[in-house]
Every structure is written in C-alpha cells, then in structure tokens.
Amino acid sequence: MNNEISPPESGTLIYHLRDVIKTRESEGVAFRLNVPSLQIGQGEKIALIGESGCGKSTLLDMLSFILQPSEVGSFRFRPKHSDEKKKKKNDDESLDIKRYWDRGKQNYLGDLRRHHIGYVMQTGGLLPYLSVRDNINLSRHVLGMKNDDSVEQLAKELGIHHHLNKLPENLSTGERQRVAIGRALAHNPSIVIADEPTASVDPFAAEKIMSLFLELVEEMHITVIVASHAWQHIKRLELRRLSHHTRRSEDGSVTETVVKG
Ligand SMILES: Nc1ncnc2c1ncn2[C@@H]1O[C@H](COP(=O)(O)OP(=O)(O)O)[C@@H](O)[C@H]1O
Ligand SMILES: [Mg+2]
Which pick of 84, 127, 232, 236 has the fewest CB atoms within 10 Å? Predict the structure, then answer.
C-alpha cells in the first residue's frame, strides 16, 4: 500500500506506540493485531483503510483507551492542552498509558478520554431523547464546561444550525452524522477518532461531510484519525494513510494484521 504523506520525523507526537499487540477471539476464530511501531504527530490527518474485520476498530479502541492491549512495549500519549505545572518540571509531557493500564487505572483513562478525545461512531450514537443542541453539548456537559456559543458556532459550520431544537429522529442520516461530528469536536479535544463515520450515508453526502469534517479539525488544530473500508471516498482529502498487511486463514478471514506506522 502506498503512503502519499510521510510519517512525522520530528516535532510533537500525540501517539508513540511500540510493540502493541491485541489478540481477540470470536466464535473460535483467533485474530491478532500487531503494531510494531506507530507514531502520530499533533495536527496530522490519518486514514486507516481496510476491509471489514481487519482490525480498524480494534486499533481505534486502543488509541482511545477503551480497549486494553494484550501486550505493550510502550504506549505514550501527549495531549494538546499541556498541564503548565508539569511542563515546568518536565520537558517530556507525554503520558505513559502502559503504566495506567498495568495499574488498572481505568477511571483515570476514562477521564483522559473524556477530556482529550472526541469519538465519531459509524451510526452516530446520538441520544434519542436529547435535542440536537444537547447532543452536541454533551461532550462539554460531562466535563462541566461553561455554556458559551461554541455549540451554535459548530452547528453553523456543520450546516445544522436550523435543527438545534429538534430531536435526532427528525433528521436525515447525514444530518445526524453532522451532529455526531459536532459532539466529537465541541469540547475541543486533542484528537478526534472517527470509526467509519460516513459508512451509513450515501456516497455524495459522505464526501461532503468528510471534507467539512476535515476542514473543521484543521481549523481547530485537532489531530484526526479516520477509519474507512472505502478509500475512494477519502483519497482526495490528503490524509496520511497507515499501511498494513494481513494474514488469512483458508476461508479468507483475516487472522493477523500488522500495522506499519
Ligand atoms: N468484542 C470482540 N470480541 C472478540 N473479538 C472481536 C470483538 N470485536 C471484534 N473482534 C474480532 O476482531 C477482529 C477485528 O475486528 P474489528 O477491529 O472490528 O475490524 P474492523 O473494524 O476492521 O471491521 C475480527 O476478527 C473480529 O471478529
Ligand atoms: Mg470496525
């Protein structure tokens, strides 16, 4: 697979992983995701493209600390908003995520996720009983952030401003995905992770939503990782594509994926 854009050589890395492995088993079939080395620079736009079952969600869930790897050499994360006190003490502000996993600090990892990561799911994951406004505001609300005009601003940029008082059920699939994107960005995270965010939208709307999404993250200086099974939709958007190779069983299902960062 080709990499049109090179990985970062220097500068600030948001993720730095070495020898991270996750093994999973479903219905007696074993799968192994192997990440020998992965470096993602702050502000990078990354695409993770591959067929269903090759481990995209597995990788994204580890990067958002939802899923604990089976083995870790090193797993460091450096959020955008640095803690000024720590900065004075220590130049290397990256956090040793492996240590938190080793010590079972799931609550801390959950806090870290809520503060620094925005997540867009394939089908949005909006709360049906909350208005569009409250859905977008949710990522701010759980952090106790003050109400300002950021929800309205985002809604305007996403072209859903006139839907703010509606419930999600009154919106089209594409509009709901725009709301999901708004929610993932509203708390100004360090990184947004989008797992097939436009898979349920028609191709025309998908491309429009994706370019809007990438414009917004660039404007906000947010790093982004997008997983997709369809390279066609996003190949014009100048993302760095993570390459990988797969090993398969006789029936064709993927048994191992090695990601090359
Ligand atoms: N919750 C789970 N428990 C066990 N195995 C899983 C689970 N989720 C996914 N898998 C397996 O992990 C492999 C990779 O899946 P996944 O990361 O969902 O791939 P993708 O997102 O690329 O479609 C598959 O073999 C899948 O069956
Ligand atoms: Mg998936």
Answer: 84
> Hey, which residues does 66 pair with through a beta bridge?
none
Asked if 230 contacts 195 with a C-beta cutoff of 8 angstroms, the reply is: no
* Both tokens assigned to 210: 């994706």
pTM for the whole thing? 0.92
CATH of span 13-260: 3.40.50.300
Q: Are 169 and 135 in contact (CB under 8 A)?
A: no
Give the residue from 209, 220, 142, 145 showing the smallest Cα distance to 179: 209
32 lines ligand 1 (CB under 6 A): no
Ligand 1 pocket test, pick from 31, 35, 68 with the greatest ligand atom count within 8 Å of Cβ, gives 31
Helix (H) or strand (E) holding 170: none
From the list 257, 260, 261, 259, the residue with the least C-alpha distance to 23 is: 257
Note the pLDDT tens digit of each residue in 197-230: 998 888 888 989 999 999 999 999 999 999 998 7
Nearest atom of ligand 1 to the alpha carbon of 52? 23
Ligand 1 pocket residue status of 196, Cβ below 6 Å: no
Q: How far, in Å, from the CA of 260 to the mean position of ligand 1?
A: 19
Element (H, E) at 37: strand 29-41
Cα–Cα distance measured from residue 209 to residue 177, given in angstroms and rounded to the nearest whole number? 8
**Residue in the block written with tokens 């809007």:** 212
